[in-house]
Specification:
By secondary structure, the protein is mainly β. Strand 13 and strand 14 form a beta hairpin. The strands form 5 sheets. Strands 1-6-7-5-3-4 form a 6-stranded mixed β-sheet, with helices on one face. A 6-stranded antiparallel β-sheet has the order 10-15-12-25-26-23, with no helix packed on it. About 10% of the residues lie in helices and about 30% in strands. InterPro entries: H-type_lectin_dom_sf, H-type_lectin_domain, MetalloPept_cat_dom_sf.
């Protein structure tokens, strides 16, 4: 494409001032060496402020990505090609959702550093989950287009977002390849406020740019497209900047202190709008040298998505929503049963058979034979259906039962789950497959999915030694009780995973209470539940039902119910509150 079609009427490539920026935030990650000039520019000079240096200083490793929080922050640029296309701001293929990403309270520190850096998202700029985002190129070459298409899919492989590359018509993301401007992007849905004849992203890359730099630039800018901000400007970052040193460095590059404040040192967002995480290897981490901080801390650049990047983007845009449901038998008590099962459909049909977790939530069983024998299981899991059953065995008298169910997509990067079967009193080590990334501590849910207990009915599950690779689960009883066998449903997930919280409640039969959620949910979560400790009198029938329901985004209401003459001495219930994503 001939640059004269869109560039100002001059044969000299246009440079943009770095001293009059009016955007909400900025700085980028990889400390990049100067990019080679392109003798054949892609035609469209685009981007938002020249984050590119007009002069490269010796040992300068602070090339910057310009991140624009608002469309109005982007300085005037030449028009995008084919400006006659109609602006369209409706882009999603599903109803709009607000992702429930709780404020992360577990922030890991850099080795030998006193501050943290986080992979963070700006909630108001997130796309509705399931969105189709159309991308058009202005300028560039087929080789560069192919790289953008390939590396953008690294994000969408984990996120429930589709990037559709179009040659014409409306688009949400418009990419130019102007080497006289720095790499930059509008943040998330802010691109919808930009006219169709205006770019929303610039990539300062050419055919001569080193491949790892190309990959880093594309991954980083498309992280911004999905709503990820620069961690150094998170309200929670608290980097100990050496302000005089930072000012001096950028003053030497010809920019003002106001520019440095706006684009590097100050946070443009209130805490309430940021979902923060900790990940020093994130593709979104801003690179800065040790001379910029009072304690000598620094962050190097990266050119790949980190393990946490993939987990975080999958949590922000779940590919398939986690589904919580329940199954309760309604057999008349005069006609006890041994086993009841039912097949349920899955809609929409899944690309692969999902994972299921099942925990007992209700028992109504005779004490005639001195045993509680009850179990539940999920079988015949297909992409469009599954079967759940609950009951007893060995001619015991079983009236009714209830099961809490959690469905998780196959290959979900956040959850590990499984069942310990035929487990008597002992300690059982569960090795996670795959293990969590080193340094990621999991939260662990454990509840009974099967019980075979005699005499006084007592059982307990205790969780020990949880780390990124394994967890130990202790099955025990006490007193004169016999715990012959159990099945244990366990679930593990990163302790800093947004939109998920594990909690417990304790009481005797008839107890009720509330649990204040510590995570921040932006809608009412679904609740998966079970019990991990029980002490039930065997002198009467075993009648136990636990309930845990979310009254609102901040509170779980729980109850330990019994009826007739049954005696429940104590129960410890456990729950997972899980963002529904709606």
């Amino acid at each position: 494409m001939d640059s004269s079609q869109t560039s100002p009427a001059t044969s000299t490539p246009e440079k943009y001032s770095t001293t009059s920026v009016m955007y909400a935030r900025v700085e980028d990650v990889p400390p990049r060496p100067p990019f080679p000039t392109d003798d054949n520019p892609s035609g469209v000079t685009v981007s938002a402020i020249s984050s590119e240096k007009t002069k490269i200083l010796a040992q300068d490793n602070t090339l910057i990505c310009m991140l624009f929080a608002k469309a109005t922050d982007v300085p005037s640029r030449p028009p995008f090609p084919n400006a006659t296309t109609i602006q369209e701001t409706t882009v999603t293929t599903v109803a709009k959702t607000t992702l429930d990403d709780g404020d992360n309270r577990a922030h890991s520190s850099f080795t030998a550093l006193s501050h943290t850096v986080r992979l963070s998202f700006h909630r108001p700029s997130l796309w509705p989950n399931g969105s189709r985002i159309r991308v058009r190129f202005g300028g560039g070459t087929p080789e560069l287009w192919a790289r953008v298409q390939a590396y953008s899919q690294w994000w969408s492989a984990y996120a429930n977002i589709t990037f559709e590359f179009v040659d014409s018509g409306p688009s949400e993301v418009r990419v130019t390849f102007n080497t006289n401007d720095g790499s930059w992007s509008l943040l998330g849905t802010q691109s919808l406020q930009r006219a169709q004849d205006q770019p929303t992203m610039n990539l300062n890359i050419t055919a001569l740019t080193p491949p790892d730099r190309v990959r880093s630039e594309i991954l980083h800018e498309f992280g911004h497209v999905l709503g990820a901000i620069h961690e150094h400007q998170s309200p929670l970052a608290q980097i100990p900047w050496d302000r005089p040193a930072v000012y001096a460095h950028y003053n030497a590059l010809g920019v003002t202190n106001d520019w440095v404040d706006t684009n590097i040192l100050n946070s443009p967002f209130p805490d309430s709008e940021i979902d923060a995480d900790a990940d020093t290897r994130s593709i979104m981490v801003y690179t800065y040298p040790a001379s910029f901080t009072t304690n000598g801390s620094s962050v190097d650049w990266t050119s790949d998505l980190s393990a946490r990047d993939t987990q975080r983007i999958a949590a922000m845009y779940p590919r398939n929503q986690y589904a919580v449901s329940s199954f309760t038998t309604n057999q008349p008590t005069e006609t006890p049963m041994e086993w009841q099962s039912i097949t349920f459909g899955i809609s929409p049909q899944q690309p692969a058979p999902p994972q299921f977790a099942a925990a007992l939530s209700e028992i109504d069983m005779s004490n005639r034979d001195d045993n509680i024998r009850v179990r539940t299981e999920v079988t015949d899991v297909q992409t469009d259906r599954y079967t759940v059953g609950v009951g007893t065995w060995g001619n015991r008298v079983f009236y009714n039962g209830g099961v809490s169910l959690l469905r998780v997509p196959a290959g979900d990067p956040n959850f590990r789950m499984g069942t310990i079967t035929d487990a008597g009193p002992n300690s059982y080590r569960i090795s996670f497959s795959p293990p969590f990334p080193l340094g990621v501590l999991p939260n662990v849910f454990a509840a009974f999915s099967g019980i075979d207990s005699g005499d006084n009915w007592r059982g307990a599950l205790d969780i020990h030694n949880a780390n990124h690779a394994y967890v130990d689960i202790q099955v025990s009883t006490w007193g004169s009780s016999n715990l012959y066998n159990t099945n244990v449903q366990w679930i593990a997930y990163p302790s800093d995973l947004p939109g998920v919280e594990v909690g417990t409640f304790t009481g005797a039969g008839g107890a009720t209470g509330t649990y204040q959620l510590q995570n921040t949910f932006y809608n009412t979560p679904a609740v998966f539940m079970g019990f991990q400790r029980f002490d039930i009198s065997s002198n009467q029938n075993a009648r136990l039902r636990i309930r845990a329901t979310a009254a609102n985004p901040n509170r779980i209401d729980w109850a330990i119910e019994t009826w007739s003459d049954s005696v429940i001495y104590s129960v410890v219930g456990i729950f997972l509150a899980i963002s529904s994503g709606g």
